[in-house]
Amino acid sequence: MSLVKRFVCPDVTVPTKRNNDNYKSNDNKKNNTNSNDSKFKNRLIEKNAERKEFSDIFNSIKELASTQYVGMNKKKFKEDKLTKLGAAPVKQQKMPFKMKIGILKGREKKIKKLQDQAKESGVVLSKDLLQKNKKNKNNNVSNQPNLDVKTKSGVLHIKNKIR
What we know:
Layout: H1 26-66, H2 72-85, H3 97-121, H4 127-130, E1 147-152, E2 155-160
Antiparallel strand pairs: 1-2
């Protein structure tokens, strides 16, 4: 008994109108619509069955491949499987703040190093890469001079400066 099944990928075709439909009489059109509708529905049912079979085979192949997962990949696969069955998604692990700051600084160093190497070699970089980690850290954002706009713990506070 072999574990691998052979299958044919279903062809997707869109039914088109014929050019001769304009020249047919109205009686023929009424008679043909019922038969065309039933043929079209039968074709749709067959294609849906083929697609379902194809997706089932694809899922079984993924299941076979999942037996080879080790470590984090195995854990991630189990979590995905549980979420598909309706369980609550697992939250990502938290990390210490100092560790996160170190990782961000390392990324900045790496980007700066790549920028320096690009300058030396004469390569022009995109603006996105140059301004990737530059964020506006100022919480006080006011476009109008007589308004004092601040955000405090996610709440927008607006005050008139002139009283």
